[in-house]
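Chapter review: from sequence to fold.
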Amino acid sequence: MSRYSQAHSIGELGGVVRVALYERKIPFVGIPPTCRAKFATGKGNAGKVQVMEEITRKTGIVWEGKDADDRCDAWVLEQMLLAKLGLSSYTWNRDQLKGLDGVEWETAGL
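The token string follows.
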């Protein structure tokens, strides 16, 4: 499968999931990769490896295995929501918290 086909399929899947959530009145928030990177590292252009390294440095959690970057991303997204709600058990600096600013939280009623 070509890269274009993979990207196209992922985009379609994302659309199907969004429609299903909308039809069931389940609130959701789309978080741009740059916001995830900014929150994790303080820099919006950080790559997945930089995100994992920074989160490991901050938390001591070691991300290993084939899907380590995806698991780390999911953890960061969870922490973003917890930080938005004031419930994160971690301290995030001002630059990292700016990563929350680019997210349209209102779509989920937050």
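Two observations follow directly from the output. The chain has two domains: 1-30, 31-105. Residues 3-23 form the longest helix (21 residues).
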